[in-house]
Amino acid sequence: MEFVSGYRDEFLDFAALLFGWFRKFVAERGAAGASLEGHWRQLEAQIRRLPQDPALWVLHVLPNRNVGISLGQGAEPGPGPGLGAARLLGDEPPLHLRDLSPYISFISLEDGEEGEEEAEDEEEENGEKKGAGTEKVEPEEGGEPAPTIKEPPLEANPPGEAEEAEQEAGGGEDGCREDRVEDDTGPEKRKGQRSEAAPLHLSCLLLVTDEHGTILGIDLLMDGAQGTVTRGSGTENLASRAYALLCHSMACPMGSGDPRKPRQLTVGDAQLHRELENRVPRLGVKLAKTPMRTWGPRPGFTFASLRARTCHVCHRHSFEVKLTPCPQCSAVLYCGEACLRADWRRCPDDVSHRFWCPRLAAFMERAGELASLPFTYTAEVTSETFNKEAFLASRGLTRGYWTQLSMLIPGPGTPGHPRGNMPSLSLLLSGDPYQLLQGDGPALMPPVPPDPPRGIFGSWQDYYTWRGLSLDSPMAVLLTYPLTVYYVITHLVPLSFPELNIQNKQSLKIHVVEAGKEFDLVMVFWELLVLLPHVALELQFVGDGLPPESDQQHFTLQRDGPEVSVRPGSGVSARLNSGTKEKGGRRDLQIKVSARPYHLLQGPKPDLVIGFNSGFGLKDTWLSSLPRLQSLRVPAFFTESSEYGCVMDDQTMAVATGGGTSPPQPNPFRSPFRLRAADNCMPWYCNAFIFHLVYKPPQGSGARQAPGPAPPAPTPAAPPAPTRRRRGEKKPARGARRRR
């Protein structure tokens, strides 16, 4: 897929931003060469003329004594040792932090052992986060920034005022996260990655932020790395590095805004503060009288999650070049005519921008419709400049499941998956299934209404009214998952598969395929029993991204009154419990976990299959899982975060099975939070669109199956299918006879 917005871990985009800026900084610092003195005089004069930022700037000095970085060769060849620049920024960037594990390992420098084979995933992912960028010190390719391209556009003049990508640093959240990594990782150990070189030591991290947390510049001081110095090399060298970092941060700030200088600067190290006392005033900047002894967040402090945009072709950031959208579709960002022309003429034609431009223009026209939501905060959260971390922090949404949505505050254990014996359940207090949905303030979820719903809800406003929620409540962000399942059961299945009579079933077995984030938020699905009180539900989460230690685990949530009880069990006891599910007064929700690809799952056929933000084209296992669904021929509904994803899913379904997908429709229970995209301006929302699989007709049935029941009789005059297709149709045909 060309665009991975909504599928890629936010931190990877942020890491690419950090080390894209760092690479540019290193290149320009090295380019000064012999004319160093003249270069700084010219730069100082330029900075003195910059406008003043009223915010306080902070130079953080973050030491690291315990963790070393080992660069592995990885499974694929790359430019130089370890992780090349293309791994984060290239045509096939990683989608998840775990994708970096073959390239980066972290070892303890305390005892010199590379030993312990097993490490907690929280240590592993923290290591990957840090290593994702640290390794970038090695490659030198693409180090020099390109000038802004001002050539005439391809087929139309670009807008005179390019949509200057706001250069929003994905948040200073990582300044804080880097700080935590330095302090908390301790004797962090990872599985060895076959690195022949001695481990690198990131001895110190220099970080420039403003008082609001926006990261403005970064420098990495590594022992043994070329051209790096540490405090052991002399404070003068450290001061020179810090001064160069301050100058570059003012002339080319990584975060949002134009070049500027701070009104006042404070330094987080007493010795470095003394070294800079005679230098900083040259820039027209006031240095605080004393060094910063302690630095803590203000009551309204938050790291901004806004990220600098990138060119879709060359991946350069907006602090390097001026970005403009395509003059025809306004959907894709380019740095100039050269990249626009290269994308326009790509081969084969169906991956070129020439082919996609009219479609993307149509997708852009849906932006207003997708942003039409009834909440009081709709204008803020659907804006292209939406600051997610600021929104969550201002409302006290800094614990429980809310931490899964933010880069500012990691959840317990940092990685997204519950571990071992489902620690998310251990956080259930006083039998309250909504404990993990709460913020720091008053209860967000009102008591369950005494009477079941009298009708079927088709919008957020109807549901909020019945549930007693204020339209100012952000609960829709988490409840999008159970409400989407509810919408499929009550609206879409009866319309597309009326012969199943699903609304009259007393129990439903639902498979949630390629589960990830949904399993991290498992307790939100309790709301299904509130909406469907007379249906016993079994949700089986399936996917090879689930924690292996949770494989084959299951538990049952039961509700006889105002409280919920959690009862773990084994695979056998769950079936023994099924007899109680059909008693009208008891509501049960069974949760099962299968940590494997869907095509390897064994067991009874489900009533319904659901997948969230699936991205068929991003994972090879779908080429096996989709034929498995074709053979089962069960109703299978999927959501996507954009219409572009729906088109790609239809193409993948055609390649994998010969079938297709139904026309996508907007999901009324989509998340209200707009997802930021680095290289495009399309509207992306979690669970934005929904469609179902259209299976290839059984052998001899004639045309491609349409939504609804299959034709009752085959068409004898249908042309024979190719031999390859006949082989693929044998199993579905036998399955159809068995069902009759």
From TrEMBL:
Q: Which GO terms describe its cellular component?
A: cytoplasm; male germ cell nucleus
A Pfam family of the record is zf-MYND
Q: What range(s) does the MYND-type domain occupy? A: 311-357
- Segments of skewed composition (Pro residues): 708-722
Where on the tree of life does the source sit, at the highest rank? Eukaryota
Q: Which residue stretches belong to region Disordered?
A: 111-197, 552-587, 699-740
InterPro entries documented for this protein: Mss51-like_C, ZMY15, Znf_MYND
Task: List all Basic and acidic residues biased stretches.
Answer: 127-139
Query: Mind listing the UniProt keywords for this protein, alphabetically?
Result: Metal-binding, Zinc, Zinc-finger
| Molecular function per GO | histone deacetylase binding; zinc ion binding
Residue ranges with Acidic residues bias: 111-126
Single GO biological process annotation from the record:
negative regulation of DNA-templated transcription
Locations of Basic residues compositional bias?
A: 723-740
- The name this protein carries in UniProt is Zinc finger MYND-type containing 15
Lineage per the UniProt record: Eukaryota, Metazoa, Chordata, Craniata, Vertebrata
